[in-house]
């Protein structure tokens, strides 16, 4: 196994959504598309991809999801 100096691994409990920054990202997506009256699955897929793409270019949102877990962005 290679040792990578810049990588920090956090061992999380098996089920701990409050410690998982990904849950915050999904919360942002669900809030944005929650009132979508989709005609089919492809419409939902497009809406989710669009929202994820917008989040990708907003590092402040991603950092906020990480901060909400108690972990420190960039730390």
Automatic annotation (TrEMBL):
InterPro entries for this protein: RNaseH_sf, Tc1-like_DDE_dom
Domain Tc1-like transposase DDE: 5-39
Keywords: Endonuclease, Hydrolase, Nuclease
Pfam families: DDE_3
A molecular-function term among this protein's GO annotations: endonuclease activity
Superkingdom of origin: Bacteria
Keyword presence, Nuclease: yes
Entry protein name: DDE superfamily endonuclease
Organism: Streptacidiphilus jiangxiensis
